[in-house]
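[audit] Reproducing an earlier prediction to check determinism. Same input, same settings, fresh worker. If the tokens differ from the archived copy the diff job will pick it up downstream; this log only records the rerun itself.
[audit] input (70 residues):
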Amino acid sequence: MSGTRDTNGNEPDDPEGDDDFDPGEYNTLIELERLESLEEEMQELGVASLDDIRRRIEDLNAQLDEERKG
């Protein structure tokens, strides 16, 4: 290590430096993470499609309505 750092405090040959930051790639990684999390949650809930989710919401709302009446 030479002790020389750039304006961001990174060593010039530091592969972790910000020189290669790509906002498009970052946004893609964020979207990928969100979709993977959504997939996991859907699996945990036992739903496979948006229609399944909508049916489940409708059923749970009906169940709550019945419980409130009863």
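[audit] rerun output stored. Observation attached for the diff report: The chain has a mean pLDDT of 87.
[audit] end
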